[in-house]
Fold:
Amino acid sequence: EEALELSRNLQDYVAKKYPNKNALAYEIRHHSGQSIRSVIQKDWENPQSPINHFMKLTGAYLEDDQFLKSVIHKTSLHHGLLKSIHNDDYRLRAFRNNFYNENIHKTEENMSFLDELESNIKSIYGLDFTGLDEDQFLALDEKTKKEIKEEKETEGGKDKDNELRKNILYGTLRAAKFMNQNDQK
Structure:
């Protein structure tokens, strides 16, 4: 019953608030109670749209759980850097070569995943959220929404557009990890 209520809320109060009422809203909740939620605008016609990258990244089968943990950690840790270099192919490739250079990152399946991730980073950080109102940022967790509201007036406060970009990227990677987890561990 709780799952049905959650899915109804995600549909009615998150996905349907987006322009054209055409978005994928999801929440992954762990046994521990932690959850990650995100919303992604559906744009199937554009092969470089975040929804298409989401489908490829979450559909990828990866042998090594440590690989995804490493990617999630490094991507989250270096969000600010990714934000500043997302539209510079040379710097984005240098980031990849510097931070994903261990043997675990060099298998064919993992390199393919990193290629898709690189395209996803370009796509997400290129999104324009102009015109979205506060209700359309419901995918952000309560703590982040509160911080954005409190820091809105202060210099150097959190930028809700970039927090949403971070949320989409991190949510995509966490969803990929969820889809790849070995339930027998």
